[in-house]
């Protein structure tokens, strides 16, 4: 995690460095009022009219040229600009020439260090836009932490589908129970009479047996 954070911070530093480099290299120098940058009373064109015709962006510079010791340039607030108040400047330049960097977006208010000059119109408003377009610099991609390979879930082998057999196996004949041949009916013997025949009666006459 710490390595990732360090890599991201390093990437942002690189991007910021490239952005600054391109914006500074592409910055423009504007001579105030056009011409040689003369900062004076009654210019040939109103300073604010000149400003409205130009497009100022971050890191551009303004060049002022004036007589050293008799004039100066002051960066002031909006309220002091409108009232030509020169007592509380944000910045003051009085060495005969000045080059001011427009280091932010928004409005910059400049007045002459001589209040009488200011009331006569020696004052300037500059509206600064964002930086100029510069080549897109893609941030370096942070190294991705390698993810362990995911284990594949075991796949059960799939048996090839058996083609349906068209031939039907011969049906086995159902077992036939052996039928014993019919036993012919036995000729029944007439029942023997249980009655013994009556003995014939004999008559004996003398030594001769007489049968009826």
UniProtKB/TrEMBL annotation:
Pfam families, alphabetized: Cu_bind_like (PF02298)
Annotated Low complexity bias: 139-150, 189-199
Biased composition (Polar residues): 165-177
Keywords: Cell membrane, Disulfide bond, Glycoprotein, GPI-anchor, Lipoprotein, Membrane, Signal
Domain Phytocyanin residue range list: 28-130
CDD domains cross-referenced by the UniProt entry: OsENODL1_like
Main location as per UniProt: membrane
Signal peptide: 1-27
Cellular localisation: Cell membrane
Membrane disposition: Lipid-anchor; GPI-anchor
Annotated spans, Disordered: 136-212
Family affiliation: Belongs to the early nodulin-like (ENODL) family.
Name of this protein: Phytocyanin domain-containing protein
Organism of provenance: Brassica napus
